[in-house]
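Protocol step 4 of 5: obtain the predicted structure for the target chain.
Materials: sequence only (see below). No template structures provided, no constraints applied. The aim of this step is simply to have a reference model before the mutagenesis design in step 5. Sequence pasted as it appears in the construct record:
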Amino acid sequence: MKKASHISLSLSVFVTATFVTADAYATHSWANYHWGRTTNPLPLELGDNVAANWDANLTLAASDWNISDMLDTAVVAGKSNPRTCKPTSGRAEICNAKYGNTGWLGIAQIWISGDHITQGVVKLNDTYFNTTKYNTNAWRNLVTCQEIGHIFGLGHQDENFSNPPLGTCMDYTDPDPTPNQHPNQHDYDMLAEIYTHLDSVNSYILSDGTDGGGKGGGKGGKGKPLDIDWNNPSEWGRRVSEHIYERDLGNGNKVMTDVFWVEGRGNSHNR
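Step 4 output (structure tokens):
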């Protein structure tokens, strides 16, 4: 009887460990979305439209993500008004402003043509970051890192706010963001999986006007309506999950929006 009990206990521990490992290391690419590039690493420019008190967070996030062999991001002068944070073809614009009591700390939006990302924006909402709860470097680092991660085509490793943190900014956490301020090895492994293949076109465009020698860089957003207010959630399109929206622009083009909700908003907490 003791031997049987021992076998049963061992099996239980093995099954539990297997589920924990599978949950923590599940694939977390955002569909098949990625930047087109004919060579690696991806030299994506991040337009700096943030205030001085956000510069260190943006610089840290870019540095953290550049640990990946697949990325060679550069923080460059921004080209957008932070309030509207309109996209620039072939790059990402990073913005902060008081966007109001929207219910979100940050959002990432990517413009898609087929599976290729052609431009993106990140918005960081000072309406909440100026409050006692969120006005910390740890919260700023987590949200900045996560939203920029979405710009590369990454999803979340975990979306449960209540379980132990995974030590990655691609993990939801509350109330203490301290363990989740940076990417982890699984994020870098996922980027390697996403970007190992090469494309026949480059969808990025550098500040000097080059796209690395490919064709069609960043043109997937052509024909998008110019009068869309991307700060207005009603313009984000259909809600496809608790935190993702899809706006169809026609002809194989669309805009995907990923929302980082504040505590208790968006039904995004698995409590």
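Step 4 remarks: Confidence is low (pLDDT under 50) at residues 1-24, 213-225, 267-271. The longest strand covers residues 104-113.
Proceed to step 5.
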